[in-house]
Specification:
By secondary structure, this protein is an alpha/beta fold. It has helices at 34-47, 60-70, 79-88, 142-147, 153-162, 170-177, 191-195, 221-224, 227-237, 239-247, and strands at 8-12, 24-29, 52-57, 73-75, 99-110, 131-134, 163-167, 185-189, 201-203, 212-219. Strands 1, 2, 3, 4, 5, 6, 7, 8, 9 and 10 form a ten-stranded mixed sheet that branches.
C-alpha cells in the first residue's frame, strides 16, 4: 500500500560556522520537492550528525501553524505557491532570500506497461482516453497552459472533455492513481514518477507542449539569524545540493 511521503523527515547536520550541538532546524514546504529535500538533509547528516533538521511536507494547512511558530526555511513548488505562502503567512519569510532554485518539466504519467500506448500529448486528446490533472498547489493552471501553449482552442476543448478528475493536490491525485477508478493518464511533473517508479511510467509531453515550473527556496526571518539555517540554504543551492536534485529529476 502506498504511504504518502508527507511525514516528518528527521535528519541531522552540524555546521562548522556558528552551529551548536543540539540545535534543530525546521524546514517546511509541499510534497513534490520533498524527496530531494529529504535526501539533501540526509547527505548533510552523513557529514555533520549533531544538529537536527526536521523537514515537514504537505499541503499548507497541515503545517502552517507549526511554520509560523518555528520555521527556519520554506520551500515552494512554484512561483505562485511561494506568493501564496507570503500572503497566508505574512512576515514569516525573509523575502530577499527567496530564490528560484530548480526546475522540473511537466510530463504524462501512464500505468506500468503503458496499456494504451500513449506516446505524446496528442494521444491524450483522443476520444475515450481518461485524464487526471492537479488543479491546485504548484500546478494551478498547468494543464490549461500546456493545452493552450500553441493557441489552439480545439486542443483545450478536447483535453477538457477527457479530464475525469481534478485533484486538489498531488497527494490526492496519487491516491486516485493507485485506486480502483484510476484514469488512463495523469498530467503532472516528472518528479512524481521518479519518486514512485513502481506505479507509473513517464511519457514526455513533447517540445510543443512541455512546460517547466520551479521550486523557490527561502529563509525565514528566524532562519536568517541562524548560521546553521543559512549554511543549509547554501548547501541546497550548491554543488552537492544540485547533484541530489538532479538525481530526483530537477535541473537548474
Amino acid at each position: 500500500m502506498y504511504r504518502a511521503p508527507y511525514l516528518v523527515a528527521l535528519v541531522s547536520l552540524l555546521w562548522t560556522l556558528g552551529a551548536s550541538a543540539g540545535e534543530v532546524l525546521h524546514v517546511y514546504g509541499p510534497g513534490g520537492p520533498f524527496p530531494a529535500m529529504q535526501a539533501a538533509a540526509e547527505a548533510c547528516h552523513q557529514a555533520h550528525p549533531d544538529v537536527e533538521v526536521q523537514v515537514v511536507a504537505g499541503p499548507l494547512p497541515k503545517w502552517r501553524e507549526q511554520a509560523l511558530d518555528n520555521a527556519d526555511l520554506i520551500y515552494s513548488g512554484s512561483e505562485n505557491m511561494m506568493t501564496d505562502f507570503l500572503t497566508n503567512m505574512p512576515g514569516l519569510v525573509d523575502e530577499k532570500s527567496i530564490i528560484p532554485a530548480y526546475l522540473r518539466p511537466a510530463a504524462i504519467l501512464v500505468h506500468p506497461g503503458n496499456p494504451l500506448k500513449i506516446r505524446d500529448f496528442e494521444d491524450l486528446l483522443k476520444p475515450g482516453v481518461s485524464v487526471m490533472v492537479v488543479q491546485g498547489a504548484g500546478q494551478t493552471g498547468l494543464w490549461e497552459d500546456i493545452a493552450g501553449k500553441n493557441g489552439n482552442l480545439d486542443t483545450l476543448r478536447k483535453l477538457r472533455a477527457n479530464i475525469v478528475y481534478y485533484a486538489p493536490n498531488s497527494a490526492d491525485a496519487l491516491q486516485r492513481w493507485t485506486g480502483k477508478d484510476a484514469p488512463d493518464a495523469w498530467i503532472i511533473y516528472n518528479i512524481w514518477q521518479i519518486a514512485h517508479p513502481k506505479v507509473a511510467e513517464i511519457v514526455p509531453l513533447g517540445p510543443r507542449h512541455v512546460l517547466y515550473r520551479d521550486m523557490d527556496l527561502s529563509l525565514t526571518r528566524r532562519g536568517q539569524a541562524k548560521p546553521a539555517a543559512r549554511e543549509f540554504y547554501h548547501f541546497v543551492l550548491g554543488p552537492q545540493g544540485k547533484a541530489i536534485f538532479t538525481r530526483f529529476g530537477w535541473r537548474d
